Amino acid sequence: MSGRYLFTSESVSMGHPDKVADQISDAVLDFCLKHDPMSRVACETLVTTDHCTVAGEITTKAPLTREAVDKLVREVITDIGYTDPAIGFAASTCQINNVIHAQSPHISQGVDTGGAGDQGMMFGFACDETPGLMPLPIDLSHRLVAHHAELRKNGKIKWLRPDAKSQVTVEYNADGTPHRIHTVVLSTQHDESVMVKGGGGKKDYFTDDARQQVIDQIILPVLKADRPDLIKGKLVMVVPGTSPTLGDADVACHVNPTGCFLEGGPHGDCGLTGRKIIVDTYGGRGRHGGGAFSGKDPTKVDRSAAYACRYIAKNIVAAKLAKRCEVQVSYAIGYPDPLNIWVNTEGTAAPGVTEDKLVALIRKHFDLTPKGIIEGLNLRRPIYRESARHGHFGRTNAEFTWEKADKAEALRRDAGV
After folding, report:
1. What's the pLDDT tens digit per position in 349-365?
2. HSE-up of 89 (CA within 13 Å, CB side)?
3. DSSP structure class, residue 116
4. Chain centroid offset of residue 331 CA
């Protein structure tokens, strides 16, 4: 069939350096909100070889002492799995630099009256490709690294280390519906037990037996969980430096395609808060306003309004008013009402439903002032550290109120379809 095309998304594990930074920033946010729900937090983290710097602007009644920050950082690093000093980054040996200070009063004076904590535009997206109403490539990519973490933590694959990246390519039909899973890439940090030392000038390499273990225990179960109908051929290992013969429907599986991934985590690459914004959202399938989420309290519309847009888009798709829906809003700092509301259904709206009608329904059913978003989604709670790994959207976590579809019935009724 002509008109088919490929689309790819990626995710990263909880042990990826940037995600380590995100989780630390959100752990600080959660600590502040737990003790003081009105905390104003903009927390940034940098991690590198046995070092962590926590910085930012925070105004809170929480007991955010240097000792408290130190404890939080070490707890997060331990939970992620960096506990062995021999790999260059560990909870027990990491040096922590705390340079947090108070928020600017010029920002506070606008937020105190109910205005947005920053200017900017935010997007939300939903589609009917998965049960969670997420695009299939990013959904599968998130599930791969989540399953990787599960097998690492429960010891079923003992040689896994925390750093990993996944990537999934889906072949789509011309009408935008998924046709088949085309390619999977999974790179995982590992220990020496699955590595063959090169001699005579040859490079060290990761064993093919370990590659097959990743395919059999991580990739295949994840692909089969949601859409087994899209696995239309065999999963074929691609050994680095080779070009295997693939059938028309086979799934090419690249596992550690560089050949070896012994050195990783913050020791292998510096990590910063907010560098994985496409991983955090829709894998490039929906647009992104550019603002990161982690480390920001809900007065920052970069985070809260993006959650609200996802909430709106998901409810529109759940109501079957469209198969795909993208929503944009924008704000001026210190001003409460959104400057615009825009909807794009990519031509998939239900009969009798226009995008103008959807905008009117949004205005009726959703309060998009910062105060309305915070109260409507109950965002002044310590729920954010968990969102900083495996994606902010498409999750079944009951605390993620932006994933509810509780307005779908009312939207459908008022749409008259």
Report:
1. 999 999 999 999 999 99
2. 31
3. B
4. 23
